[in-house]
Design goal:
Radius of gyration: 35 Å
Structural class: mainly alpha
Distance between the termini: 77 Å
Largest sheet: none
Number of helices: 6
């Protein structure tokens, strides 16, 4: 069973491709394979006179001018389209931020020094080192950051009330 002929879409088509698409459309009623159609078209094309080829060239030129040029790549290439019925999540940026935990306060204080001394480190390496430093800190030093975090939390609670 033969496949139905595809419609020519916009883009660059040679005269020969245009010719094949016309022949395939006409031959779509015949139960022939695409390989057989291609062989027949090739034989006919080779035996065709220059006048007949010009006729197909004119048709191909007319086809090219009729259709607008398409982009070679879409700006949304690779981006999935939203499926019907799904709604996007609403993100609100005006929500008040929570106070920082003690470890984050420690990181905010020590990160700049660590980055200056090791500029070639990635962010992951820097955070790993800060985590090790935090665990090595004595409890008295950690207590200072915990108190600071508690102060920030209380301040936040007062503003909320």
């Amino acid at each position: 069973m033969a496949r139905p002929a595809r419609k020519l879409q916009g883009g660059k088509h040679t005269t020969y491709l245009f010719y094949i698409s016309i022949k395939a459309a006409k031959a779509s009623q015949d139960p022939a394979t695409s390989r057989e159609i291609s062989k027949k078209c090739s034989e006919i094309w080779k035996a065709m006179s220059k006048e007949e080829r010009r006729k197909h060239e004119e048709m191909a030129k007319h086809h090219k001018t009729k259709r607008p040029k398409e982009r070679t790549s879409s700006p949304l290439r690779g981006v999935r389209k939203r499926q019907g019925g799904q709604q996007s999540k609403r993100v609100t940026f005006n929500r008040a931020k929570q106070p920082l935990p003690p470890f984050f306060l420690f990181m905010a204080q020590h990160r700049p020094q660590l980055q200056k001394s090791n500029p070639h480190w990635t962010a992951v390496e820097t955070v790993k080192k800060l985590g090790k430093m935090w665990h090595k800190q004595p409890e008295e030093d950690k207590e200072m950051y915990k108190e600071q975090a508690a102060r920030l939390r209380r301040k936040k609670q007062k503003r909320k009330a």
